[in-house]
Amino acid sequence: MTFPLRPFLPTDTIALADILREAVYDLASEDYDEDQRVAWMSTVNDEDAFGQRLASQLTLVALDAGEPAGFISLRDNAHIDMIYVLPGFAREGAGTDLIEAIMKIAAARGAETLTADVSDNAKPFFEAFDFVPEKRNMVMIDEEYLGNTTMRKALTDKARAAMNAARDEAMRGKS
């Protein structure tokens, strides 16, 4: 299934906040307990601030029958800040269409790499697009700790060679 994409509109804010809430509640339940998910979902409670955050980044919206089915946001042409899809569209191609579009746009704008701070449940998705883990993080939201992993993807041959050299050097240091 292919999902049409369009830029974020301010009128999308409430729908995208709902997508984040539904995705976190349903899709992250195996990796995060209920208190952690409630804390995570609270990050969009201030819908004005959430809308401003989306508007300040390159945000694309995936559509199904003209309605938002998912979204992705790119900060500073180098960092995927958010990617969420409605649970009913998980593993149906919406996330793939979103991330492939953002990778193309970032590369066309001159980015050599992309990073993302990836939730435990999203890590296999990012790995499927050749993102590699760099470091483990613990983030506190509303007195709840949530783990995630900073991941990086090379968009150019030069960046790919540099990442491979760094990985090889780190492996030699562990020997």
General description of the model:
There is one protein chain. 40% of the residues lie in helices and 31% in strands. It is α+β, with helices and mostly antiparallel strands and 175 residues long. It has one domain (5-174): Gcn5-related N-acetyltransferase (GNAT) (Aminopeptidase, 3-Layer(aba) Sandwich), CATH 3.40.630. The protein has a seven-stranded mixed beta sheet with strand order 1-2-3-4-5-7-6. Helix 1 (13-27) runs antiparallel to helix 2. The protein is globular, with a radius of gyration of 16 Å. The termini are far apart. The model has no long low-confidence stretch (mean pLDDT 92).
Structure summarized in a few sentences:
With 175 residues, the chain is of the alpha+beta class. The protein has one domain: 3-Layer(aba) Sandwich (Aminopeptidase).
Which short descriptors sum up this protein?
7-stranded mixed β-sheet, alpha+beta, 31% strand, Aminopeptidase, 175 residues, globular
